[in-house]
């Protein structure tokens, strides 16, 4: 009995790896960032409420787990780093990441490339029975739009394999949207507000607000074109990723990037007010 207790104590001591506590949480997080690159400092739900600010570190068998807005990572006691569900990076392969400005499409493409290394980027279509009623337990405020959400739920999955998108008017040039799991009926996001709708796909976890293809055609008059560009420039285009939280076992939308809706929509090169630099000199 004593021998068994000693063995269990030694095993528990080894699994806890208390010597890793000599490394500060900041130092543990730095190793993760050097291995997998920068992660969003904060993540928000569809209404802009902050879900996580910074990172969280906690115990993990034979190591420490770092919970971030981009996912969960483990630093093993022997120095290797693993993205949960991903591939192991050996300690000798870890190098600091050099950051540079990226367009939102580049941000999403890089995230997809990293995920494709260990998992399919497509989602299997949900084929079981549909929930008969929405579940507002996570976001009770969505109950105000219960009929629109129920109608979307009845139509089956249209987003990320297992989710439906509900939309309703919130005024002139305004729409709001919600995301619902068609199997459980759980509303996982609500209050996404747009002026030019959203783009999403059944086989993708990415949802884009005010996408380029939904913007109005440009006027033919140069002056009106400039005014249209200024109006569109104030509208944000947000990129969200449907993400599964390994700690709470729920899905939620994480905003991974935001840019002006005018990005890639128009380039204004009119110098009537002296804004655009002109290096040519007029001939006297």
Describe the protein.
This protein has helices at 2-16, 25-36, 104-116, 146-154, 222-233, and strands at 42-44, 50-53, 56-60, 63-68, 71-76, 81-83, 88-89, 163-171, 174-181, 187-194, 198-199, 206-209, 236-245, 250-260. By secondary structure, the chain is of the alpha+beta class.
Strand content: 25-35%
List SSEs in N-to-C order. HHEEEEEEEHHEEEEEHEE
Q: Give the overall form.
A: globular
Gap from first CA to last CA: 104 Å
User: What is the radius of gyration?
Assistant: 24 Å
- Mean pLDDT level: 79
Largest sheet entry: 5 strands, antiparallel
Helix content: 10-25%
| Total domain units | 2
Low-confidence stretches: 278-284
**Count of DSSP-assigned helices:** 5
Structural class from helices and strands?
Answer: alpha+beta
Query: Number of DSSP strands?
Result: 14
Strand order of the largest sheet: 3-4-5-6-7
């Amino acid at each position: 009995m004593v021998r068994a207790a000693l063995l269990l104590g030694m095993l528990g001591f080894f699994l806890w790896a208390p010597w890793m506590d000599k490394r500060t949480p900041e130092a543990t997080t730095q190793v993760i960032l050097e291995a997998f690159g920068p992660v969003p400092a904060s993540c928000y739900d569809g209404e802009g409420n902050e879900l996580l600010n910074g990172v969280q570190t906690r115990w993990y068998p034979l190591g420490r787990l770092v919970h971030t807005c981009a996912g969960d990572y483990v630093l093993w006691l022997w120095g290797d780093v693993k993205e949960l569900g991903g591939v192991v990076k050996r300690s000798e392969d870890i190098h600091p990441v050099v950051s540079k400005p990226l367009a939102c499409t580049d941000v999403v493409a890089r995230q997809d490339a990293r995920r494709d290394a260990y998992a399919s980027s497509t989602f299997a279509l949900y084929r079981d029975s549909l929930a008969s009623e929405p579940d507002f337990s996570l976001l009770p405020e969505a109950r105000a739009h219960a009929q629109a959400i129920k109608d979307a739920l009845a139509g089956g999955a249209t987003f990320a394999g297992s989710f439906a998108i509900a939309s309703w008017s919130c005024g002139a040039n305004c729409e709001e949207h919600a995301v619902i799991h068609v199997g459980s009926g759980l509303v996982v996001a609500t209050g996404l507000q747009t002026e030019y709708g959203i783009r999403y796909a059944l086989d993708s976890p990415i949802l884009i607000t005010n996408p380029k293809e939904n913007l109005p055609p440009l006027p033919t008059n140069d002056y009106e074109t400039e005014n249209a560009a200024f109006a569109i420039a104030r509208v944000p285009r947000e990129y969200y990723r449907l993400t599964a939280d390994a700690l709470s076992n729920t899905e939620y939308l994480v905003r991974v990037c935001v840019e002006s809706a005018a990005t890639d929509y128009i380039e204004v090169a009119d110098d009537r007010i002296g804004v655009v630099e002109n290096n040519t000199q007029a001939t006297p």
